[in-house]
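User: Fold this, then the next.

Assistant: Folding the first:
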Amino acid sequence: MTPKHASAHSLRARLGRPFGQVGFWLLPMLAIIAVGVIGTALYLGGLSSPDKHFKEFPIAVVNQDKGAEVPQADGKASQENLGKDLVQKFADKAAEEDKIDLRQLSIDEVREQLDRGELYAAVVVPESFSEDTVSLIEGSLTRDNAARPEVTVYTDPQAGSLGTRLATGAVEPGVREASKKLGEQLTDSVAPAEDQAYNKVLQQLQQSQQQQSQQLQRQAAQGGPEVQQFAQQVQKSQEGSAEQIAKELSPTVSSVAKDTLKDPVNMVSKAYNDLPEGTALGMSAFYYSILLLVVGFSGSVALNLLMDGRMGMAPFEMGPFFKDYERAVLPRPVGYLMKWLTFVVAAAPASALMMWVASTVGMPVPHGFLVFLLGWLAMSTVSAIVLALISVGGSVGMLLCLVYLVFMGLPSAGAVVPLEAVPGFFRAIAPIEPLHHIFTSIRSALFFDAIPEAGLTTGLIGLFVMLALALLVGVLGGWGYDKWVGLRGSAGGGKHSARAAASDGEKSLPETADNPSVPDGASA
């Protein structure tokens, strides 16, 4: 043996198996790197730029305007509904892209859809919109105070603070564009309005001069020729003075007022329903859903490790306590169902206590019994998925659970960022993600009075379907493994024992000072 090989052999002897193997160190590090890269790509890729992924964002618009007499460019006035024109311009702007799903509804339809969580915002044009717009022009001429016409944007606070900002941001460009289009019409009306004001002042001045002239003529008729001549000179000097005085006295629209008329509409944002205290700005439903997912995930992993340790499938370790129990060989489907049913039994009191603690710390919990049942179902579904993936994939199944339930589940939940503002990939996978269905059902119970159309029905259907599929995968996958590979743990002692390694034909290291456990006479 060369000195080089002897040195390497001595290092392996000092380290012992498996520490001297590259794979022992490399595989865990690759797993960490893979989890970091995949998690960042999925999580930030789904949530980092919601404004760039708008698609069919549901917004309603309601026109309640009654109309008014609006000055025209020819100096006449006609009955018009400026609110209708504003809505049409807003609709034209929205139709240029597919970012907004604009719905022209009545106010009652808007209330119904907001109560069911089907809208993120509603733009309401008030009854006095046309009158307020016309009075803005008149106020600009008379210097009287005139408020800008308003439209109100009702937002859905149950969508969370980010959803509210996204809704307002989606509406504002369309309203501003429509306001400027309306401003062009109002600006064209400024000149006729100023002409009308001038003609009105001129008419008053001419009437006043006519009355003065008639009075002067009556007085001159009573006097001599000199008085009559003076009266004629006064009348002649007044010719054309009315027009000049009218130009000076008639009101005009200032440059500041003209700028206001170019963009006349004032947009006001209001919450449709104020959220009670303890709802975390509308995010409490999402936070509670995350808790259910985490408890279902981590609880299932802990249960699997503990039960495998007690069945001798892995060393049982708890603190300083370490023991290899006698192996209990079970068919894989039986072991899977045994673990899942154990979790289901524990999930019932866990769901009740979680709900009680949430209520104790101040979170409103209406429909408490329903929230309890939803929590129980949610955790049981997550557990069935986790145990099925571990049963089929082994230790790799835990990483698959992390990617599927967390990294893919958070962006597709529709809670932090609405589904209409995430990339298409996450909108596509939302129906197969348990967190999405947990959130929609929990939100319906907490915020929308448990209305079935508010996500409760679809959430329940989604959870039950995924529960059935997970049980099917766990049972059939385990049955297939048992048939083609053999029962789990049926081949001799545990792989962690030295005796099992020897029985598998592995060569022992030679006896040295660094490896005293090898019996005398053993050789490499």
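Now the next one, as you asked:
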Amino acid sequence: MWTPQVGMKVEVNGMGPGTIVKLTPAGALVQIERFRLQVDLKLDAMRPAEISGNNQPSSPKLEEKDETLDLIDEIIGAKGSHREAAAASTTSDTVGHTQSAPKPQPEQQVRRPEPQPPQSKRIASLPMDPERLQARKTLESLRFGLVPNGHIEQLTMGFSAIKDWAFASFPERGFQRMHKVVGPYGTGKSHTMAVLRYLAEQAGYLVAKVEVDGNAISLSEPARLVNALWNSVRGNGFETESPLLSLFERAIQYGYTPHSVANLHLTKLTDNMATIQLLARMGYTETYQDMIEGVLNGSEEYTATEVNSKLGKEPNLFLPQLKLRSPISRAVAERSHDLLEALVSCAVLSRMAGFKGLVVTIDEFEVEVNLTKSKQAQLMEVIEVLGSYMRGENRSLPASPLAVYFGTLGQITNPADARLDQICKQSSGMIYTLGTWQKEQRLELAQKIYALYQQSYMLDKPYSGKIAEEVHSLMENRGYDDSGMLRQFIKWYVTFLDMLYGPPEVPKHGAKSEAN
């Protein structure tokens, strides 16, 4: 038995050479050289490169398989194939009998030839139109197991049901709401969150997202949480490197003034608007754009005191006039309320800037369990402050067009998760429960992915369910359960399509494509 190490060169069954970039509990994350793709593999799917040629058995072949399945068997290799009746020392014939596999002579070295896509099927590089470019971007996300930004409707199973639930959960009437998206690992919570943001943008809301990790990004650390959220703010037709500053500028253009918003008792919103209005009138917002945005989004790079002081040295600006304020105070006791005020202020500002409000998604909430006692207490305080506002009990802040969605496992034994559940029920919030994926759903998704692949590479070969079936069997034989099956199935399925149909590499600068 060999021991994997980061940086070690390995030979991956059917996929050629690679390099270990990270060790995992079951094996390693390997960078495949041919495809520039990182794949999570178990140890039995690879071997050290220096012994890669030593008596490795060839993959068994069935006489009546078509060339597509022949190639898949080569890619999978004997150990990974679900045709394992003769994985090590025997092969199966077409009527089910077995016979001993011929043993190579000691002086021979048998190396499995790396599968090559049939040249007649290789897709030529063609001029890229916007739709094909977006299709390729989506496929690139799927290759790496990421939630794609494009083709959300096309790749979402049960899209109409999610859409109906989403539109019922948005803060249409201008009042704040809290919701949960619940499901075990591998049921698509992150994808569902992406669908919610997509629908919210289409409906005219601004959206912001964050994935907590229980450490650097956590509800127990409001400053970092808000910074991550505000760096992700976007909307339909609203994409900018300085979203907070741009929202203030749009609100001012629509006629809002510090005086007109003072009665909302959002003091930081009022002070920031007054300062930005002054800077815009004096022509300094563009020069100091990054600094202003850094203060508004709570960046650790800039403090409000430093930026106000720097601005105060400019002609016609006086320090007492400059009141840029960061969203989260340094005082620990004020941070929970500051987080709430930041969310409410951004929702109100969104409405002033011409949007319907703000939709926030907080994903991976289940990781907020292994916290220190002090952080656990801060987490629960944040939840209670949010809950009080969602129930309409906090009279110090105005009602706002704000909806916050938590992605959780629904673990009632987790006090924080259980409290979120109670708050949703107490504040007319809604809970969307995701079910475990079945094989038929994964295969249906494979067909949707294939249609996207055809569009991306102008492939005219019809869909083959055999390929998806083979990949699914491979995942089952590698021991993936419901929690990891879906993501791995998608990654491997796209990889197999690449192996079979050979999408072209990006031509080097000045090089001609195969179509020329």
